Amino acid sequence: MKEFSEERLEKLLDNVLKPSRYTGGEMNAVMKPFDQAEITFAFCFPDSYEVGMSHLGIKILYDIINRQPWALCERVFTPWPDMADAMRREELPLFSLESRTPLRQFDIVGFTLQYEMCYTNILEMLDLADIPLFSKDRTEGPIIMAGGPCAYNPEPLAPFVDVFQIGDGEEMMVEVIECMRACKQAGKTRLETLRALAKIEGVYVPAFYEATYHEDGTLAAFTPTDPAAPAIVRRRVLLNLDSAAYPSAFVVPYTEAIHDRIVLEIMRGCTKGCRFCQAGMLYRPVRERSVETLLRQAEELENATGYEEISLSSLSSGDYTHLTELVCALTERYAEKKVSVSLPSMRLDSIVKQSLEEAQKVRKSGLTLAPEAGTQRLRDVINKGVTEDDLIRAVTDAFESGWSTVKLYFMIGLPTETDEDLQGIGHLAQDVISAYFSVPRNVRAKGLRITCSASTFVPKPFTPFQWQPQDTLPQIKEKQARLGEILHQVKGINFNWHEPELSMLEACFSRGDRRMADVLYAAWKNGCRMDSWSEFMNFEGWLQAFDQCGIDPAFYANRPRGEKELLPWDFIDAGVTRAFLWREWQRAQRAEVTPDCRLGCQGCGLRRFEGVCAE
Amino acid sequence: MKMLVIFEKKERLRHVGHLDLMRAMQRALRRSSVPIAFSKGFNPHLLVTFAAPLSVGMAGRREVMEVPLSDEISESDFREKLSAALPPELPCVAVRAVDDRHPAPMALLQAAGYRICVKDHAPELLAAVPALMERKEVMALRKTKSGEKLTDIRPMIYDLRAEGEDTLLCILALCEAATCKPELLLDALTEQAGLPERPRVLCTRTQLYGEGMQPLESL
């Protein structure tokens, strides 16, 4: 067994990139005596320090666990490959940042699943920690947990993870660690502990279920094999966001994180019902925080961090009821301290000119808009309730308020897409340029910069498009080339696109079943890790892994599913019902728009949860 | 009014680079609610200056930072407020209020003291100290802004002593006109000792000095 030593760590640190990723000691890092805690939780973010430290969920749960006097939570990130290799060479086990304790000494090792392409990093981290990768091989040591948006289809990770937490974590996490504490005190076995955890709403213990398959490879049945396991796992819903715990201090990194700022979660959930958007379906219903609460949180966090920027976070900030009031109050309070306020995730139809101007007062940042599709027809198919007039009005407002940098996000490969839709993206870009020049020279800011970014559509579970195939790699590449051609003709547009190989793998995992775990393991064995970093993406290793497992990626990525097919995630009740999603798919094919449910209930299924749909 | 802040950068933070350390200090000052002066201009920032950047990999015992203030504040009040806003690995050791006309610490700087803990080949390296100090001339390849330059670093070594079994104590020139980094001294010692390559060390800057080898913060 590998032992940890400070001396050997120090030796490694002199020879790796950005060693301060591994040394901790940041402001507001919670330092508790490790051996005095009754429950110890290693919170693992399966990506680099800079990415993980930008993530809000880890801040919330780190705070919630550490608030319990008897519990301790420490952070762990994926070592950059140079460090991972050095640790293997030196036989130094993966350790936590705060107390530098090896992971295998924790009671719980928990991973947050933000995107599918970090799954190899989970195996990498377990291996570096000297913890057996497969659940069945672990008879002692930490319980491996996972949660976050990708846990809504947990199956590709089922053999590696002991316990999934599905849904909002604020309350569930406390129940889970309390249950662990009680089991530990009572001297319960590992199996008894897992059984106790399985009774908590939102918890899924994959070892208690069995999947069987038809001859054509589709799922035949998915059944519990243990009396403690519910047939349907119901997602956890936090009813009151305003009174939910929120950190009053963030850990402030030394080395700059991707997003290094105060984040205020103004609202959770979105009622717009964009049909491609998994978050929009999963985080229902909409729950808002009050201006009073947010101003208090801003003040606490500003005092505790000294950050220069406050970012308002939600899926669709423009839909927040008190946006103008909040932005005005924040800018007024913090102008003197030179703290800027930024508003990501604004929808076109909701841009409030005043909010833009307020946000502009302290510091200027770029404006990002996501029309997603190039024609009205396709925007109707995906239920992106935005018209070209909305877009043009929004950018004109922005140009008049002194903005000159605009990013436009589109998706290619959406269901029913044709060449006309690609041409539409070119037209839209041209219209944005014309809108800029329609603003008088003395009003608009100099130096127009427009970036068009095209990502590849990935069908996701629990969306109306969950039955639909993804375009094949050659199809995607052809469309990217075509779009490049179209945008080349529009002067002054900067065009970029995502790696289609990555989107294909994402599609395989997002709708994968337990057999994808074999591919994941084989790919990691082939050396795949840090897949979302283009410099480490090893597509050959992945193709080889599919081959080794006798699995065709097209079965997961490019195959249309039938209305009656049992889907790997059907045992999870995420709130939205299958019937609602299928109905939405039918409407999509007719390019019929479904209005925002704040304007009238659309029967998505959330009403079944007591008290969640207040409006 | 300006405040000279003497702070420690502990071993755990030795890999934090100069720019990151500056940002950490600026954020600490913002948290502390002491009356700090901002720059004018489009992106206002705090006007904090450091006596000398500390190399990545090095800890510091008595580093000096100058903070221009926008209002009067007592030394004790300032120190208390700043201390409360600093992480445990970056404590404030002392503060001293000075006049606005007080020269910038950077301009007063002449030399720095280092404690170098030698991790391997310590006996050989320590044994080479007297021979090196007896030499009239120690030529070393110095990297400057204009390229590499062969320089005699002997006059820049003000003091060099062995302590205990594995530690070197030295005072080296550190100012605009002439700077001798500890690495240069170590390379010279390595050569003197006949070792094939520079041994692994842990280096801490213990003190900054001004005119007459007085501690910088006291001038």
Topology:
The complex is a heterodimer of chains A (615) and B (219).
Chain A lengths: L5 H8 L25 E7 L3 H4 L3 H12 L3 E7 L3 H10 L17 E5 L6 H10 L14 E5 L15 E3 L3 H17 L4 H9 L4 E2 L4 E5 L5 E6 L8 E2 L27 E4 L1 E2 L9 H5 L4 E2 L2 H15 L3 E5 L9 H12 L5 E3 L10 H8 L6 E6 L3 H6 L6 H13 L4 E8 L6 H20 L10 E8 L16 H16 L4 E5 L2 H11 L5 H10 L13 H11 L3 H5 L14 E2 L4 H12 L26
Parallel strand pairs in A: 1-2, 1-3, 3-4, 4-5, 9-19, 10-13, 13-14, 15-16, 16-17, 17-18
Antiparallel strand pairs in A: 5-6, 7-8, 11-12
Helix pairs in contact in A: 1-4, 3-6, 5-17, 6-7, 9-10, 10-11, 13-14, 14-15, 17-18
Chain B lengths: L1 E8 L8 H15 L16 E2 L8 E10 L6 H11 L6 E7 L6 H4 L2 E8 L3 H6 L1 H6 L4 E6 L2 E6 L4 E7 L3 E7 L8 H12 L7 E9 L10
Parallel strand pairs in B: 3-10
Antiparallel strand pairs in B: 1-3, 1-4, 2-3, 5-9, 5-10, 6-7, 8-9
Helix pairs in contact in B: 1-2
What's the quick description here?
The complex is a heterodimer of chains A (615) and B (219). Chain A is an alpha/beta fold and 615 residues long.
What would the keywords be for this entry?
heterodimer, A: 615 residues, alpha/beta, Rossmann fold, pyruvate-formate lyase- activating enzyme, 2 domains, six-stranded mixed sheet, four-stranded parallel sheet, 20 helices, 19 strands, B: 219 residues, alpha+beta, Alpha-Beta Plaits, eight-stranded mixed sheet, two-stranded antiparallel sheet, 6 helices, 10 strands
What does this structure look like?
The complex is a heterodimer of chains A (615) and B (219). Chain A has 615 residues and is of the alpha/beta class. Chain A folds into two domains: 229 residues, Response regulator (Rossmann fold, 3-Layer(aba) Sandwich), CATH 3.40.50; 262 residues, tm_1862 like domain (pyruvate-formate lyase- activating enzyme), CATH 3.80.30.20. In chain A, 35% of the residues lie in helices and 14% in strands. Chain A contains 20 helices and 19 strands. Chain A has a six-stranded mixed sheet with strand order 2-1-3-4-5-6, covered by helices on one side. In chain A, helix 14 packs parallel to helix 15 and helix 17 crosses helix 18. The longest helix of chain A is centred in the last third of the chain and has 20 residues. Chain B has six helices and ten strands. In chain B, the strands form two sheets. In chain B, strands 1, 2, 3, 4, 5, 8, 9 and 10 form an eight-stranded mixed sheet that branches. In chain B, strands 6-7 form a two-stranded antiparallel sheet. The model of chain B has no long low-confidence stretch (mean pLDDT 93). With 219 residues, chain B is of the alpha+beta class. Helices cover 25% and strands 32% of the residues of chain B. The chains are: A alpha/beta (615), B alpha+beta (219). Chains A and B meet through helix 1 and helix 9 of A and helix 1 of B.
